[in-house]
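Re-running the complex after MR caught last week's input typo. The corrected sequence lines follow. Everything else is unchanged.
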Amino acid sequence: MLKTIVTCVLLFVLIALTAYIAFHYAPIERTMGIIQKIFYLHLPAAFTSFVALGVCFFANLMYVFKREAKWDWLGVSAAEVGLAFISVVLVTGPIWAHPVWGIWWTWDARLTLTFVLWLLYVAYLMLRSMLEEPEKRALLSALFGIFAFLDVPLVYFSIRWWRTQHPQPVILGGAGSGLDPRMRIAYLLVWAVFLALMVLLLKARYTLESARADVDELRREAEAV
Amino acid sequence: MSLLSNTAVLLGKELRTEFRSRELLTTTAVFILIVMVLFSWTFGPTTEEARRFSPGLLWLAFFFAASLMLQPCFLREQNNDTLSALRLSASDTFAILLGKVAANTIFLLLSELLLLPIFAVLYNVPIQPVLPEMLLVLFLGSLGIAVSGTALAAISSQARMRELMLPILLFPLLVPVLVASTEVTRSLFDPNPLVKWKGIGFLAIFDLVFLTALWLFGEYLLEE
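Corrected-run output:
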């Protein structure tokens, strides 16, 4: 318990510190101005969500082959945490796009991919809530998670080839594409802090899921008596 | 070889079950017709607009119909308690899935072919000159829907609210098929028809990816 509190406080301080760095240390972008600051939330959240979904895919695969409940718990935790980060991406994106592109939303490759990802993992969590028996829920949702993950590159390329109308504004396009080193430091710091936050959330959610499984087990036993 | 012969036998069984009543085909065809007519009324398309929107509407109609048509393929087995018997009789569980995929592809294609002329008339789109290419797109698209749809129907049939869960699982997964097949169909309906081989190849890749996934993970789908 003490360890968790200490980690939380530490992370809170780190978040405050990176927020300071993102807002005061990193220079203000020349053409977009202050609105560009939202990228320090947007991009690291996107990268973090990809990491979380990668963890989810790995956990799904491990569950299918090993059939150990812990992989199921990790899978659902990673999906939920990933979904939270994708939601941050989907909310901050339009806030930035409206003043800069003049529109809230466009069906461009990255936006569409993010949105489809969000839908896929919402479907994954809904499926879980619709399956009663723990083992069946774990197996079937893991299989859906695997199919969903395989679908991601296909979604990306189909949208990129046939649906992208707008040329992409280049942010972080390739190594050293004129990004101020101070900006890069800010991005990397925020990403590191977000990853730490992801791990913390993942751990908390995992503990919750394992406790929930224990309660379920006890309830079953009680009902059987 | 035993996989193929098993699949053929199971496909025969699916087809026999369907053609005894033809329930699935007639209801699906009528459903597609209704969706097409509804779309036509909401948009009131002139020829120019129809050419732009109709490929998307056509494939959306097929998608909606597929999400309903795929429901019974495992429910029927569940209701009659025949899945365990199937599993015992087939040497490979993949053959069961493959038989269902083949059957669903055939049902989808048949209802699409039935409705394609009516679509051409309603939306005033010339289809005859590009018929062979159109058939190819219909086949690859329907196969993609059937492969992923059969896998997801196996999943959703075991869940609560299964009738709603199937489209919720299926549609986001089928985004690539929708985009690619709509794109290819649109360039086929153009006054100067153009065959987008990239799109056709993409559909083939989608089918291949999900067939492989079904082959790798199919046996787990049908576990009890």
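None of the earlier attempt is carried over here. Residues 181-224 of chain A form the longest helix (44 residues). Chain A touches chain B at residues 64, 112, 116, 119-120, 123, 126-127, 130-132, 136, 139-140, 143-144, 146-148, 150-151, 154-155, 157-159, 161-163 (CB under 8 Å).
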